[in-house]
C-alpha cells in the first residue's frame, strides 16, 4: 500500500467521525502501515500547537497520536475558530490570516483571507487543501481523512472542500458513519446518499453504524434492505462504548449544564474526593485541559453556569475562551464574577487558564478580539493584559511546584504581571492561580503537586493517586478505538477500500442533487 486514502464522512455532526478516523488510524498503524490523519477544514475552538508552532484542530492532534506520528499543519490546513455567531478567525496552514463572516467564507470567491492566500477565494483554499493532502499521501502508505458535518449539506456543496469536494478532487473512497443511538440511521444513510450528485455518489462506498446497543442480528435485516436500496454495503457495526469521545472538536455543540468529565478510576486514593467546577464561559476553548484532572482517581469535574454551583467546589477553573471580554461580561451577568471574588477573599482555590487567566487580572486593553477598548477585569490577580494583533503560538516548558511542566500557548493577549508569586508564565496571588499554558495539567508530576496544593488550601484530605499517567490512559483509549475497528468492522474490506478506492459498479440512487 502506498498513497492509499479514505474519507470518513458522517450523516450528521457528532456522528463519530473523529473517533472512527482515530480508530482506523490506530488499527492501520498496528498493522505496520505508515498512516497520517487529515481534515481539510475544521471548525473548532479546541486547537493544538505543533512543535513547529502551527495551530491545528485538537482532534487532528489526537488522530496523529493514534498514528504515532508528530502532528503537522499539513493534517489540518484550514481551521475556523468561531468568534461569535457569524464570524470566525481563519487559520491557514497553522497561521491566522484573517477574520471572516460566514457569508464571506461560504460566498462566491470574492472574500479575501488577509494575505495568506495571495488572491483569496475558495478556489485557492481548495488548491491549498489538495496540495497538503497530496504531500501527506506522497510520504505515507495511507491517509485517513475526516469530513465535517454531513456531505449532504446541498446548500454548501458548491463551496465544499472538506467532504465531497476533497473526495472528488483527490478521488477518495467515502465511508459514511451514522450514530444509531440517535435513531433514524437508515433514513440518514439513504437520504445522505440520495441527495448527492451522481459524481459524488460514485465515490460513496458504503456505511458504518456507530454506537449500537443490543443484538446485531436484529439489525442485519435492515442492513440487507439498505444494501438492496442503495447497492452499498455496511462495513461494520460498532458497539456503544462510554468514555471514547476524546478531544471533541467543539464544546458549543452540546449543553454543558451538569456535564461531567468521566474519571478513569472512580475510587479516591485518600479519604476524600476533590470537586472541580469549570465555568462554561461563552466561546469556551480547549476545555480538554480538564481531561487530565478527570483522569485522576477521586477527582470529579463538572461544567457549570450558575453561581450556586460553585458553592461545594474545592477548585473552580475559568477556562480558555475565544472571547475574553465577552466571557468577562457573562461571568458578571450570571453572578459568577461575584462568587469568584468571594472565593478568593475566603482563600478558596481558583485557576484561570489562557482567556480565563486574562480576565482574572486588573485590566484588559482589547482593540483586537472584541475591540472593546479598556475593560476592568475581576482584579483577582495582579496583571494587566493588552491584546496584540499577532497571535502567540508556542510549546513552552518549564518548572512549577518542583515539577517539570510542558504545555502549549494560543493567545492574542499579552500579560504584564505586576506582583504575586511566579506560576508558569503567569502568577499566583493567595488561592488564585493563572497561566496561559494549555495542557500543563497533562504533566503528571505537576498535576499531582498542584492537586495536593489545592487540597491543602481547600482543607480536603485528598491524596492524588501515585502512578496515574495521563499519556498512558490516552494510549489505552486509542487502543480501545483500534480494537473497535479490528473487532467490529470488516477490516479486509476496509483495507481493499483504502488501497484500491471505491468499487466501480455502484448504482446511482435518485434523486441526486445538482
TrEMBL record:
Catalyzes amidations at positions B, D, E, and G on adenosylcobyrinic A,C-diamide. NH(2) groups are provided by glutamine, and one molecule of ATP is hydrogenolyzed for each amidation. It comes from Streptomyces physcomitrii. The keyword Aminoacyl-tRNA synthetase does not apply. InterPro entries: Class_I_gatase-like, CobQ/CobB/MinD/ParA_Nub-bd_dom, CobQ_GATase1, CobQ_N, CobQ_synth, GATase_3, P-loop_NTPase. It holds the Pfam family CbiA. This is Cobyric acid synthase. Keywords: Cobalamin biosynthesis, Glutamine amidotransferase. Coiled coil: none annotated. Transmembrane segments: none annotated. Residues 275-444 form the CobB/CobQ-like glutamine amidotransferase domain. PROSITE patterns: GATASE_COBBQ (PS51274), GATASE_TYPE_1 (PS51273). SUPFAM superfamilies: Class I glutamine amidotransferase-like, P-loop containing nucleoside triphosphate hydrolases. Belongs to the CobB/CobQ family. CobQ subfamily. Residues 7-250 form the CobQ/CobB/MinD/ParA nucleotide binding domain. The active site is at 354 (nucleophile), 438. Pathway: Cofactor biosynthesis; adenosylcobalamin biosynthesis.
Amino acid at each position: 500500500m502506498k498513497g492509499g486514502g479514505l474519507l470518513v464522512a458522517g450523516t450528521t455532526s457528532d456522528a463519530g467521525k473523529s473517533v472512527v478516523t482515530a480508530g482506523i488510524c490506530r488499527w492501520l498503524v498496528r498493522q505496520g502501515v505508515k498512516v497520517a490523519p487529515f481534515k481539510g477544514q475544521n471548525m473548532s475552538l479546541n486547537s493544538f500547537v505543533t512543535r513547529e508552532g502551527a495551530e491545528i484542530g485538537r482532534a487532528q492532534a489526537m488522530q496523529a497520536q493514534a498514528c504515532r506520528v508528530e502532528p503537522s499543519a499539513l493534517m489540518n490546513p484550514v481551521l475556523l475558530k468561531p468568534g461569535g455567531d457569524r464570524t470566525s478567525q481563519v487559520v491557514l496552514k497553522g497561521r491566522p490570516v484573517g477574520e471572516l463572516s460566514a457569508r464571506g467564507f461560504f460566498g462566491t470567491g470574492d472574500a479575501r483571507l488577509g494575505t495568506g492566500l495571495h488572491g483569496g477565494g475558495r478556489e485557492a483554499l481548495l488548491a491549498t487543501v489538495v496540495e497538503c493532502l497530496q504531500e501527506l499521501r506522497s510520504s505515507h502508505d495511507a491517509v485517513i481523512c475526516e469530513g465535517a458535518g454531513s456531505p449532504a449539506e446541498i446548500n454548501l456543496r458548491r463551496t465544499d472542500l472538506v467532504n465531497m469536494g476533497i473526495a472528488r478532487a483527490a478521488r477518495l473512497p467515502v465511508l459514511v458513519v451514522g450514530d444509531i443511538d440517535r435513531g433514524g440511521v437508515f433514513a440518514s444513510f439513504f437520504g445522505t446518499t440520495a441527495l448527492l450528485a451522481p459524481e459524488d455518489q460514485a465515490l460513496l462506498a458504503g456505511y458504518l453504524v456507530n454506537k449500537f446497543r443490543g443484538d446485531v442480528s436484529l439489525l442485519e435485516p435492515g442492513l440487507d434492505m439498505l444494501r438492496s436500496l442503495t447497492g452499498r454495503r455496511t462495513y461494520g457495526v460498532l458497539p456503544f462504548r462510554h468514555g471514547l469521545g476524546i478531544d471533541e472538536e467543539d464544546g458549543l455543540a452540546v449543553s454543558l449544564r451538569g456535564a461531567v468529565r468521566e474519571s478513569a478510576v472512580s475510587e479516591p486514593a485518600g479519604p476524600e474526593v476533590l470537586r472541580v467546577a469549570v465555568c462554561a464561559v461563552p466561546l469556551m476553548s480547549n476545555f480538554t485541559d480538564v481531561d487530565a484532572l478527570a483522569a485522576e482517581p477521586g477527582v470529579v469535574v463538572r461544567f457549570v453556569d450558575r453561581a450556586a454551583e460553585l458553592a461545594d467546589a474545592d477548585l473552580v477553573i475559568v477556562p480558555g475562551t475565544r472571547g475574553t471580554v465577552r466571557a468577562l461580561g457573562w461571568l458578571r451577568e450570571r453572578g459568577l464574577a461575584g462568587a469568584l471574588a468571594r472565593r478568593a477573599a475566603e482563600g478558596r482555590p481558583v485557576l484561570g487558564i489562557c482567556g480565563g487567566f486574562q480576565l482574572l487580572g486588573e485590566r484588559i486593553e482589547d482593540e483586537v478580539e472584541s475591540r472593546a477598548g479598556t475593560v476592568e477585569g475581576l482584579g483577582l490577580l495582579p496583571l494587566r493584559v493588552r491584546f496584540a494583533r499577532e497571535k502567540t503560538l508556542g510549546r513552552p516548558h518549564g518548572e512549577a511546584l518542583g515539577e517539570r511542566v510542558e504545555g502549549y500557548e494560543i493567545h492574542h493577549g499579552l500579560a504584564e504581571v505586576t506582583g504575586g508569586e511566579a506560576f508558569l508564565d503567569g502568577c499566583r496571588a493567595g488561592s488564585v492561580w493563572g497561566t496561559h499554558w494549555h495542557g500543563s495539567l497533562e504533566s503528571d508530576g505537576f498535576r499531582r503537586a498542584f492537586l495536593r496544593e489545592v487540597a491543602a488550601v481547600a482543607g480536603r484530605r485528598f491524596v492524588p493517586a501515585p502512578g496515574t499517567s495521563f499519556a498512558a490512559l490516552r494510549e489505552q483509549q486509542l487502543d480501545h478505538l483500534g480494537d473497535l475497528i479490528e473487532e467490529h468492522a470488516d477490516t479486509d474490506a476496509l483495507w481493499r477500500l483504502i488501497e484500491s478506492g471505491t468499487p466501480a459498479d455502484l448504482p446511482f440512487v435518485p434523486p441526486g442533487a445538482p
